[in-house]
């Protein structure tokens, strides 16, 4: 097929959708989980349309795949009260439960989650246009993350099972929960990145309010029954509705102890300001990023081009860790762009269930128009689209565009595009990209491409104090999940990794006593009788 035929192929005939990838029926969600019950909803709903489109008699339309409740502030407050009651000022069944028992609950959840894999993966693909292969990977990676979280918690608890004696004081130091957590995940990894905060929050003994992202809501529906049956009443509560309607009242109540959000720094700032006692609010945030790559004149140009394509266009560039600005030394810019264009031309685009597809339709309805606006603005200020077909739009699909030369007059210079546009900025002096990173409001990661050891060494030291991760001759990325994931400036608050997340959703607490004979007897009796779940020497295998 030629390019136009491939574009036309993006508009599907429903009869031609392979049966193994089709949804069995519309997923019209009429229930939600609150206070340990699946509550029926008769109110208004939000219709969910896939980025995958069909041709109707009059126009091209997105395929409707289901709907979910649009609840009100009233239902959100009821869910908040349920989470507060389950926590019960730290006296509830869940926060006082032995760690080993909480782990068993999570293990039971994994079993039930795996039973829903097929439908969850399909919904992930249909809701956000992620390829079927990557949707499967996201599900499997999420399960692996939960198992890794369990193992990490066992290690932490084993270390905490002993007593410490210092200066005549005997103490046992453990981690205890923080309270009620409000969890909001992103649309680009609506399962994985949501669960990288949700699961650690739960397993550490907190209770939870969970709001799914606008794009990527339905895929959580098949797992609600698992949350209901695997955890005590009120530990996990789902809230639905318009964020600007239901969330402010929750924050203003002062009953939210932890805000975890992966999304916009603007939204995070607004929500934190609503809390009446900000000093009592812990925030674990993954926010905006405008990660840069610096390709020096001593770089392996072929490698840099390959990693740039991977870093800038994986899941259509819709990742916070995506490479969103590329600085290239002017002496190699032409060669770099040539190689970049060749690799982009080899990428397969199409429908997400097709084997080998890399580029797929975009879930956000207004995104192609926004990207086109960025492209036209760049052209107005002197940039050109350097790759064939760059910026071509077909309904919900946007073909990647390479823009060069980009300068500071253009929106794309500072705005996070979160999509398949690759802006290339030529530079003469290495100080230019360094100053860009210093002045940027973002500070997540940077990628350095060079074979010059002394040059790399000279860049590492200033840049580790501007961003949280410096990648040498490779794209920016989150994993492995054991590595810390965070950012400076407006890019993050708190640190996530398997171990760091457990620490983020808990606090070190201790029981201490003067080392007298009477206190020794008291502590020994408590430990021997197993009357306390905190003061214990039980060892989890």
Task: Give a verbal description of the structure.
Helix content is 38%, strand content 22%. The chain is built from 17 helices and 26 strands. The strands form seven sheets. A seven-stranded mixed beta sheet has the order 16-19-20-15-14-22-23, with helices on both faces. Helix 6 links the parallel strand 9 and strand 10. The longest helix has 29 residues, at 132-160.
Total of helices: 17
Straight-line N-to-C gap: 58 Å
Integer tally of domains: 2
Query: From the alpha-carbon coordinates, what is the Rg to the nearest angstrom?
Result: 25 Å
CATH level-1 class of the largest domain: Alpha Beta
- What's the pLDDT, averaged over the residues? 97
CATH fold naming of the largest domain:
Aldehyde Dehydrogenase, Chain A, domain 1
Tell me which CATH architecture of the largest domain applies here: 3-Layer(aba) Sandwich
- pLDDT < 50 runs, ≥5 residues: none
Beta-strand percentage range: 15-25%
Shape label: globular
> What would you call the structural class?
alpha/beta
Q: In this structure, how is the largest beta sheet organized?
A: 7 strands, mixed
Strand element count: 26
What is the CATH homologous superfamily assignment of the largest domain? Aldehyde Dehydrogenase, Chain A, domain 1
What order do the strands of the largest sheet run in, or round the barrel if closed? Answer: 16-19-20-15-14-22-23
- Percent helix, as a range, is 25-40%
Looking at this protein, list some descriptive labels:
Aldehyde Dehydrogenase, Chain A, domain 1; alpha/beta; 6-stranded mixed beta sheet; Aldehyde Dehydrogenase, Chain A, domain 2; about 550 residues; 17 helices; 7-stranded mixed beta sheet
């Amino acid at each position: 097929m030629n390019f136009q035929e491939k574009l036309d192929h993006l508009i599907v005939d429903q009869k031609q959708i392979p049966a193994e990838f089709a949804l069995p029926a519309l997923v019209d969600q009429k229930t939600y989980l609150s206070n340990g019950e699946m509550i029926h909803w008769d109110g208004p709903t939000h219709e969910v349309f896939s980025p995958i489109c069909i041709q109707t008699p009059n126009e091209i339309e997105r395929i409707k795949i289901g709907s979910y409740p649009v609840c009100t502030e009233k239902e959100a407050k009821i869910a908040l009260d349920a989470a507060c009651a389950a926590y019960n000022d730290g006296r509830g069944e869940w926060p006082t439960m032995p760690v080993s028992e909480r782990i068993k609950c999570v293990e039971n959840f994994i079993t039930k989650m795996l039973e829903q894999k097929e439908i969850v993966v399909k919904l992930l693909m249909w809701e956000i246009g992620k390829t079927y292969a990557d949707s499967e990977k996201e599900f499997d990676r999420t399960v692996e993350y939960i198992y890794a979280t369990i193992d990490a918690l066992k290690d932490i608890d084993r270390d905490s099972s002993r007593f410490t004696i210092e200066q005549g004081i005997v103490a046992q130091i453990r981690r205890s929960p923080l309270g009620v957590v409000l969890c909001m995940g992103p649309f680009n990894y609506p399962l994985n990145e949501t669960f990288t905060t949700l699961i650690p929050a739960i397993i550490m003994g907190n209770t939870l309010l969970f709001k799914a992202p606008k794009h990527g809501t339905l895929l959580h529906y098949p797992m609600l029954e698992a949350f209901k049956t695997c955890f005590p009443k009120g530990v996990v509560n789902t809230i639905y509705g318009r964020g600007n309607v239901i969330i402010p009242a929750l924050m203003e109540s002062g009953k939210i102890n932890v805000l975890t959000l992966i999304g916009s720094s603007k939204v995070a700032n607004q929500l934190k300001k609503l809390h009446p006692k900000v000093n009592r609010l812990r925030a674990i945030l993954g926010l905006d990023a405008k990660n840069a790559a610096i390709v020096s004149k001593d770089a392996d140009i072929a490698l840099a081009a390959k990693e740039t394509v991977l870093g800038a266009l994986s899941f259509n560039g819709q990742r916070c860790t995506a490479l969103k600005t590329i600085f290239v030394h002017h002496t190699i810019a032409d060669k770099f762009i040539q190689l970049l264009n060749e690799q982009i031309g080899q990428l397969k685009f199409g429908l997400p269930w097709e084997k080998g597809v890399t580029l797929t339709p975009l879930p956000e309805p207004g995104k192609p128009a926004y990207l086109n606006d960025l492209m036209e603005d760049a052209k107005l200020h002197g940039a050109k689209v350097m790759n064939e077909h760059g910026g071509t739009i077909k309904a919900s699909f946007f073909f990647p565009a390479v823009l060069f030369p980009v300068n500071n007059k253009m929106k794309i210079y500072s705005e996070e595009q979160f999509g398949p546009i690759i802006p290339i900025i030529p530079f003469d002096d290495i100080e230019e990209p360094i100053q860009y990173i210093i002045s940027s409001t973002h500070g997540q990661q940077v990628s350095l491409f060079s074979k010059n050891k002394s040059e790399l060494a000279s860049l590492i030291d200033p840049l580790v104090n501007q961003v949280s991760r410096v990648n040498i001759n490779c794209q920016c990325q989150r994993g492995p999940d054991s590595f810390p994931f965070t950012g400076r400036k407006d890019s993050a608050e708190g640190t996530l990794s398997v171990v760091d997340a457990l620490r983020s959703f808990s606090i070190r607490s201790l029981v201490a006593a003067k080392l007298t004979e009477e206190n020794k007897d008291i502590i020994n009796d408590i430990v021997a009788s197993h009357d306390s779940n905190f003061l214990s020497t039980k060892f989890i295998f």
